């Protein structure tokens, strides 16, 4: 497996693979890989002849008050995990390689981003859309793989690819959880022992929400209230949002009368964690 730092190296390698008639799958990441990323790499290796993983903590998607500086980074560890799962090339650029001094073009989206994480993190999706567009232009994959844990991101990327006629198939992959239910996240590493236990309220609230839907409750306020009682019972938890939205438009709904996404962001101490379920997946 190659680890490359420059756009030119990625392009040269992908050009060679294309000349051999090989297909290319792509897994964009910010590194500090875990089993969630591994499942995306596995899916890409299953569907494609070659797999590229990008490992880049994208400064453009962090607000000044967020965790850009402290975001965990460990290329050696990432390389070992990616290679063990069949990745063929890791692209690990420096920020200057991705954003030159005069960088001034952005990809923004006027729908799907007003709710949920878009509301709490106003510049986030502009940064995500811009970097993912750039990465797609660099790697030119046949397929790209994203986790359903970042459900809004997945919807935004699908919409962007459609709007901008990008010839790339977007594959959404299931949330991978620890054995006790906590969704895998690079940010779990911020949690101390007490916070790690407290963080279970997210997946427990997800289970409460799923059971309510399974039991035929369609009133969103009722479902959300049951979930919030659980989260608020944990002293270390502070709700950013817990909402139910139309899975396609990401606009809030009052009744579950169409495919819906129930999503939450909750601070455990200083760490902001997200979790969700799609009613269609129950
Ligand atoms: O989901 C992530 O890790 C990031 O938002 C992504 C898609 C790699 C863009 O930086």
Give a written overview of the molecule.
The chain has two domains: 2-173, HUPs (Rossmann fold), CATH 3.40.50; 186-275, 2-Layer Sandwich (Pantoate--beta-alanine Ligase, Chain: A,domain 2), CATH 3.30.1300.10. 38% of the residues lie in helices and 20% in strands. It is built from ten helices and nine strands. The chain has a six-stranded parallel sheet with strand order 1-4-3-2-5-6, with helices on both faces. The protein has a three-stranded antiparallel sheet with strand order 7-8-9. β2 (24-29), α2 (35-47) and β3 form a beta-alpha-beta unit. α6 (124-139) crosses α7 and α9 packs antiparallel against α10 (220-232). The longest helix has 16 residues, at 124-139. Bound molecules: pantoate (PAF). Pantoate binds at residues 28-30, 58, 61, 128, 131-132, 150, 153.
Distance between the termini: 38 Å
Mean pLDDT: 98
Q: Major sheet, described briefly? A: 6 strands, parallel
Query: What's the level 1 CATH class of the largest domain?
Result: Alpha Beta
**Within the largest sheet, what's the order of strands?**
1-4-3-2-5-6
Q: Just name the CATH architecture of the largest domain.
A: 3-Layer(aba) Sandwich
- Radius of gyration over alpha carbons? 19 Å
Which structural class matches the secondary elements?
alpha/beta
Helix content: 25-40%
**What do we call the CATH topology of the largest domain?**
Rossmann fold
* β-strand amount: 15-25%
Low-confidence sequence ranges:
none
Please write the string of helix (H) and strand (E) elements.
Answer: EHEHEHEHHHEHEHHHEEE
| Count of domains | 2
Compute the number of strand runs.
9
Shape, principal axes of CA atoms = globular
Number of helices: 10
Q: What's the assembly state of these chains?
A: single chain
Chemical compounds bound to the protein: pantoate
């Amino acid at each position: 497996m190659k680890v490359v730092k420059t756009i030119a190296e990625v392009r040269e390698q992908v050009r060679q693979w294309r000349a051999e008639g090989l297909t290319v799958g792509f897994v964009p990441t910010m590194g500090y890989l875990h089993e969630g990323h591994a499942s995306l790499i596995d899916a890409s290796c299953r569907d494609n002849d070659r797999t590229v993983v990008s490992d880049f903590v994208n400064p453009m998607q962090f607000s000044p008050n967020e965790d850009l500086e402290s975001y965990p980074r460990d290329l050696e560890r990432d390389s070992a995990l990616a290679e063990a799962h069949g990745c063929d090339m890791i692209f690990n650029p420096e920020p200057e390689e991705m954003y030159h001094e005069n960088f001034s073009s952005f990809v923004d989206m006027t729908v799907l981003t007003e709710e949920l994480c878009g509301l709490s993190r106003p510049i986030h999706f502009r940064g995500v859309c811009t970097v993912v567009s750039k990465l797609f232009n660099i790697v030119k994959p046949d397929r790209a793989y994203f986790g359903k844990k970042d459900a809004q991101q997945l919807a935004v990327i699908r919409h962007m690819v459609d709007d901008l006629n990008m010839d790339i198939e977007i594959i959404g992959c299931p949330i991978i959880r620890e054995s006790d239910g906590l969704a895998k996240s690079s940010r779990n590493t911020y949690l101390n022992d007490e916070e790690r236990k407290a963080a279970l309220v997210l997946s427990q609230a997800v289970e409460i929400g799923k059971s309510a839907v399974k039991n035929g409750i369609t009133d969103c306020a009722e479902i959300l209230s049951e979930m919030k009682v659980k989260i608020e019972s944990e002293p270390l938890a502070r709700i950013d949002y817990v909402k139910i939205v139309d899975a396609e438009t990401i606009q809030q709904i009052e009744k579950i009368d169409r495919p819906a996404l129930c999503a939450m962001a909750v601070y455990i101490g200083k760490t902001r964690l997200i979790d969700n379920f799609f009613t269609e997946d129950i």
